Amino acid sequence: MKKILLLLAFLFSVQFSTVNAQKSLEVNGVKVPRTLDFEGKTLTLNGVGQRSKMFTELYVQALYLTVLTQDPKLILESDIEMGIRIQVTSSLVTSKKLSKALAKGMEKSVGEQGILKLAKEVAELETLLSKEDTKAGDFFNLIYNPLDKSLWIYKNNKYEGKIESFEFKKAFFGIWLSENPVDKGLKEELLGKYE
Questions:
Q1: CA 180 – CA 182 distance, rounded (Å)
Q2: Rg (alpha carbons) of the chain, rounded to whole number
Q3: What averages of pLDDT result for each successive group of 10 residues across the chain (195 residues)?
Q4: Which of 19, 20, 59, 79 falls 20 to 30 Å from 103 in CA-CA distance?
Q5: How many CB atoms lie under 10 A from the CB of residue 97?
Q6: What are the structural domains of the chain?
Q7: Where would I find the H helices in 58-183?
């Protein structure tokens, strides 16, 4: 039912407005920007969905690309600007729980051996996400910059730091877009494949 409502909200906003007239769309009470500006580039919304677990809505997530596509392998292998936006919607999501869930998602994406090779980067992510506690309403923009092969982390539009590694970028986006994503329905939504 949630997916149908999300799809209807998305289609309604696309059909009855222009991109210039409406700079964001609303998904389950969260305003999701249609574009993100990063280092002189404009990233465009590719897809949006909600991550739920055990009947709890945890966060609204959006995928932004410079070239829109529904091909997850192309996204994972591309060395171009791209971003993930996560807006926390549940008070159950803390900085520690979010970083732990992202680490588990990366392990699911690249396997046990793959995640061991990225231990330093995973620890850096936990540190950057935990600078201050996370609460409902907080949002993260996690944007890949090909110029220095790094993932830049912003919390509520404040730059927190970056993690350098193209392999880490692939593992990070693989949380949602790999062959073994944390949520298959969310993967489809981020790819713009609404049922």
A1: 7
A2: 16
A3: 47 44 75 94 94 73 95 97 93 86 93 93 93 89 97 96 97 96 93 79
A4: 79
A5: 13
A6: 2-190 (3.50.70.10)
A7: 72-77, 95-117, 119-129, 166-177
